[in-house]
Amino acid sequence: MSDEPRPAGDDLRPVEQGDLIEYGETKRGGLSLRTLGLLVGLLIVVNLAALIVAPPVNEKHAGEACAYPVCFIEGTLHFPRPHEVWVAGGEEASSGLISTQVSLTDSLLTMILLTVLVLVLGAWAARRRADVPGRVQNFLEWTYESISSFGLSMGGAKAARYLPLFAAFFVLILVFNWSGLVPPIGHLDGLRAPTSDLNVTVGLALVAFFTFHIEGVRRLGARSYLSKFFPFGEFRSGIGAGLIAVFVGLVEFMLEFIKPVTLSMRLFGNIFGGEVALAVVLGLSAGLLAPIALYGLEIILTFVQALIFSTLTLMFILVAIESHHDDEGHEREEAMGGAA
What we know:
This protein has 11 helices and 2 strands; from the N terminus they run H-H-E-E-H-H-H-H-H-H-H-H-H. The protein has 340 residues and is mainly alpha-helical. Helix 2 crosses helix 9 and helix 6 (198-220) packs antiparallel against helix 9.
C-alpha cells in the first residue's frame, strides 16, 4: 500500500484543512501471550516484594502488630479523600472529598510524575525514529495508528483534527489507571493512582468540557452555536413550534452540564472500586495467594475506562461542531426524496 493519502469518500469528506489525515502502510504489532504472561508474573512478584518491604501498618494503634485480616485490608486500602503532601501557607489540610485548597496531594504528585515520564519517553521515542524501525518504534507507530483508526471509524474525517487530543487523553488516563496496579504506588505514602481521586477526574472532565464548547464556538461561531440551545428563530414557523424548540434547547443546554459529571464519576467510581476489590483480596490472602485473575480483570477494566473517557470526549466534540442547520437540511432532503 502506498503512502499517499487515501481518497476521501462521501462519509470522509474533509470539512477543514485540518480534517485530512494520511493513511500509511499498516503495521502489525502488539503483545504476545508469552510477553503478557511475563508482565503479569513480574507484577505479582513486585507486589509480593512490596508487601514484604512495606507491610501494612496499624495506623489506629501505632507500635502494635497488624492483625489479620482487618488491618491488612485497611493498610492496603486508600479511602477516596486524598492525602496532602504539602499545603500552601502551612494551613490545616481540608477534610472534604473535593477541595479547592491550594495543596499538593499524593494523587496530584503521582499525576505530575507520570505525566513527565510519558512526555520524556514520547520525546525520546520521537527522536529515535529511523527509516528501518525497531521494535519500540514499530510498537509505538502501531499503537498510534490503532488509536487513529479507531477514532476515524467513530467520527470520520471530522475526527482527524482531534485525534492528538483523543490519543493524549487515552494514553494518559490509561497510564494513570494502570499505575494503581503497580507497587509501590498505592503502598507508600505520597503515591497514589491519580484517577482514584475524584479531584483529578473532575479536572480531566472539565478540560474535556471546555474543549468541546470552545471548538463548537470556533467552528460554528458564537451566534450559530448558541442557537442550538436557544433557537428563537423557530418562532418564525409559529408560536407552538418556537415554544417546543426553545424547551428542547433548554433541556439540551442543561444536559451539557451533566456531561462532565458523568465523565468524572464514571472514571472515578470504576478505578476506586477496582482498588477496593484488590485491597480486599490482597488483605485476605496476606500476599500468599496471587490474585492473577483479578489483576487481569482490572487491566482490562482500566483499559476500557480510558477508552470510554477519550471516546466520549471525541464524540462530544463532534456533536458540538455539528451545525443543527445541516441536520435540518438533511431531514428536508430526505422528506422531499420520500415524497418523490
